[in-house]
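Handout, page 2. Input:
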Amino acid sequence: CAPANAIPTDNDIFPNADNFDGLRFYRLRAQSPEAEKKHQLTSLSNSRLHFGASRHAYLERWLASHEVKFVIATFLQRYEIKLMDGQKRPGSIRFQHTPDPKSTGFISEKRI
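Output:
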C-alpha cells in the first residue's frame, strides 16, 4: 500500500506542493531531455501513482490521458466558469485540494 494522496503534497518531491501551479510539470519537463520523458502524464514513477507502477501499470493509460484531455478541452471551449459578482474563491478542503462542494460561488455559462 502506498500513500498515493500524500505524495503530490510532499515538499521534498514537489517544491511548493501545497500551492497550485498549473505549469509545474511543464517546468519540470523543460529542465532536461531526460526530464521531458520522466514528467509526462503517462510516465510511470514512484512519485506519481495515478496509473499504477511497474508491472501493475494501467496498460491503456495513453487512451485514458487523451480522453481526459478531450473532455477538458471540450468543456473549456463550450463553457465559461466564473465567480458570481462580489464572490471570492471558496477555500479548498484538504481532500484532493478540491473546492468545498457546499460552496455556492461558482456558476457556469454557455459561451456565445
